[in-house]
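Hey, sorry to bother you again with one of my protein questions. There's a protein on my desk that I can't quite get my head around. No rush at all, and the record is pasted right below.
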Amino acid sequence: MSTSEQQRTLDHLVDTARYPLSEPESPGARAVVDRARRELLDVGCTVLPDFIRPSLREILRQDCAAIAPRAHYDVETVNVYNTAADPSLPADHPGHMSFDRGNAFVPRDRIPDEALVSRLYSHELFKDFLARCFELERLHELADPLSGLVVNVVAPGMEHPWHFDTNEFTVSMLTQEARTGGVFEYCPGIRSARDEHFDDVRDVLTGRGERLVRRLRLRPGDLQLFMGRYSLHRVSPVRGDTARHSAIFAYSERPGVIGSVSRTRQLFGRVLPEHLEAEGRAVRGDRLLD
C-alpha cells in the first residue's frame, strides 16, 4: 500500500482531527501521546475515546459480530497465572484459587483482511503511534498466525476472570457492549517484575481488596492501551442477551514472536506448524509466575 493509500485508509477509519497520527510532531499529536504516557505511568491504562470514527461504529460492530461464531469455545478452570496446580505452594497462595474462564477467541486467520480491525492492526502509522505512546522505538506485529489479532467474545453468563497478561502491554478496542455487566476491572501495578505481591492478589480474589480495584466504562470505538503484565484484570460476568466483543491487537518489541504450543492450544483449540517449530525458542523477560 502506498503512502497516500495508507493515509486515505487512516483518514477513513480514525478521527485524525482528534488523533493526528500522520503528524507526530504536531501539537495535537504530542498532546495525545503525552497524556497517554502520563496515564500509563500513573495507572497503567489510558483510553482514547472515539478513536474509530463514530460513523463507523455500526460497521465495526457488524464486522466482529459476523465472525464471533468462529471463536473457539471451551470453558476452562484456570488460576490468575494460567498455570497448572502446584502442590508445593502454600495453602493460601492465590495460585490455588481457580475460576471458570468462559470467554472465547476468534483467531487472526479467521478474521477477514477487509475488516476494520484488520486494516487498523497492520497500518504502519497506527503501529508508530502506539510505539510512541508506550515509549518504545518500534512495535512489530506478532509472527503468530493465530494470536496477533483476535476478537474476544464474552457471551451472556460468561466472564473473562481475573488474570495477568503474558505480554507487558495490551492494545484493545471494544466493538460491542454487553447489555449488562461486562465491565473492565483492573488493579494497576499490583505486581512488578521483582515482586509478585501475592498478599494483594489474594485480597482481590477473596473480595477483600476493593481498595485496589478500578472500573472502566468503555464504549465501542474507544482505543485502550494497558499494562496488563503487572495489572491484575478481568471482564466481569456478562448479563442480558448481548455478548461483549472486543478486538485485541497484539504486538511485540521484537520481531518473530510466536506463542507457546500449550497456551495456543488452550486459547484456540489447535496449533499450527509455526507453533511447533518455534517451541522452546522463547526467551522470558522476567521471572514472574506467569
About this structure: Residues 27-43 form the longest helix (17 residues).
